[in-house]
Amino acid sequence: MARLKHKLSEPPVPPDRGVRAATFKLLLDTAMTIIKESGHIPSVAECAARSKVSRATAYRYFPSRSALVTAVIDSSLGPVRKLASDNPNGRERVHELFLQTFPRFKEFEAQLRAAAQLSLEQWGLERAGLLEEEPYRRGHRVRILEHAIEPLAPLMRPAVRDRLHHALSVVYGIEPYVILKDIWGLRDREVEKTALWMADALIDAALRESDVKPVKTKST
C-alpha cells in the first residue's frame, strides 16, 4: 500500500443542520463562486465580506485558506473520491476512473486550478520561511489510483507497480488540463483522449517490463 510522507489536508466537517449548516454552505458556495468568476483564491475574510458574515464567524468554520480550499475541492471531487469498482480488469478499472472523473474536472476546472495554484504558492513561501498558515497538502489521487490498479498489481514486481502508480498520478488530475489546454490549446475532449492514451501507454510499458502480454479494454 502506498504511503505518503505528509499528512493529507482534510476538509472541515460541515455542521449537520440549522443555521450553522446554512452558514457553512453559504461561505463554501461563495468561495467556489469567487474562484469561478475571478480566478483567484479568496481569503477567508473576503468570503466573509461577500457572504455578509462576520470574520470571526467565518474563521470558526474555515481557519485558513488551506481549510477553505480543502473544503472547495472536497465539494468538487467528493463523489469521485468514493468511487469503488469490482471490475477484475485493471486497465478497464483505470478507464472507468478516468471516464467518471472527466466531467468533474470540466465542471470544477477553475476550483481545481485554484487548489494547484495555492499549493505552488505555499511551496514557495515555505521554502523561503514565510509561510504563516497550515499548508494545503494534496494527494487523494494516490489512494484512488491504488484502487484502480489493484488488479494489475499481482502481475508486476513491486518496483514496477510503484512506478506505474507514480506515473499515473501525473496523468490523472488537473495537471494535464493545465498543460494541454494552456500550452497546446486543446479542447476538453482532446485532453481526455490524450490522458487516456497516456494511461494506456504507461500500463503497456509496465506490463512489458513485467513480461505480461498487454490486454486492451473493450473500448480500445
Judged by helices, strands and strand pairing, the structural class is mainly alpha
Strand content: under 5%
Average pLDDT, rounded to a whole number, is 91
What's the helical proportion of residues? 55-70%
Number of helices: 10
Shape: elongated
Low-confidence stretches: none
Number of strands: 0
User: Would you list the SSEs in sequence order as H and E?
Assistant: HHHHHHHHHH
Report on the biggest sheet: none
N-to-C span: 29 Å
Radius of gyration, in angstroms, nearest whole number: 19 Å
InterPro entries: Homeodomain-like_sf (IPR009057), HTH_TetR (IPR001647)
Keywords: DNA-binding
Protein name: TetR/AcrR family transcriptional regulator
Domain HTH tetR-type: 21-80
Structure at a glance:
This protein has 220 residues and is an all-alpha fold. It has helices spanning 18-38, 44-51, 55-61, 65-81, 90-107, 109-127, 140-148, 158-171, 175-182, 188-209.
Task: Please characterize this protein's 3D structure.
Helix 2 (44-51) crosses helix 3 and helix 7 packs across helix 8 (158-171). This protein is mostly helical. The protein is built from ten helices and no strands. The chain is elongated, with a radius of gyration of 19 Å.
